[in-house]
Amino acid sequence: MPVAAVLILAAGTFAIRFAGPLLRDRVTLPEKVNELMTASATVLLLALVAVSALTNGKQFGGWALAIGVLVGGLAAWRKLPFVAVIVLAAATTAGLRLLGVA
């Protein structure tokens, strides 16, 4: 039974991916729908980043983690090298936890 389920899901995934290029020229969406889809993809990605960056399991990771993520985000926005972004975020979080910020 599990093999059949995997094969069915694989066939469905292939069909969906194959239909995209075939229908690209046949289906046109209004400009408003395209804008909405772009915005919704951005919001979904931001929500995923926020949940994975600010939680430990099922609960809030604490203010030290939130401030560390903020510092890392600011460093990335200032276009610092990736290693510097990670080190700054981790050092900020660790320093705040050392000072007792939960």
How would you describe what is shown here?
The protein has 102 residues and is mostly helical. It has helices spanning 2-23, 31-54, 63-77, 82-98; strands at residues 55-56, 59-60. Strands 1-2 form a two-stranded antiparallel sheet. Helix 3 (63-77) packs antiparallel against helix 4. The longest helix has 24 residues, at 31-54. The chain is elongated. 5% of the residues are buried. The mean pLDDT is 92.
Return the structural class.
mainly alpha
> Helical proportion?
over 70%
On the 0 to 100 scale, the average pLDDT is: 92
Low-confidence stretches: none
Strand percentage: under 5%
Write the layout of secondary structure elements.
Blueprint: H1 2-23, H2 31-54, E1 55-56, E2 59-60, H3 63-77, H4 82-98
Antiparallel strand pairs: 1-2
Give a nutshell description of this structure.
By secondary structure, this protein is mainly α. The protein has helices spanning 2-23, 31-54, 63-77, 82-98; strands at residues 55-56, 59-60.
Give me some keywords for this one.
about 100 residues, mainly alpha, 4 helices, 2 strands, about 75% helix, about 5% strand, Brnchd-chn_aa_trnsp_AzlD, transmembrane helix, Branched-chain amino acid transport protein (AzlD), membrane, transmembrane
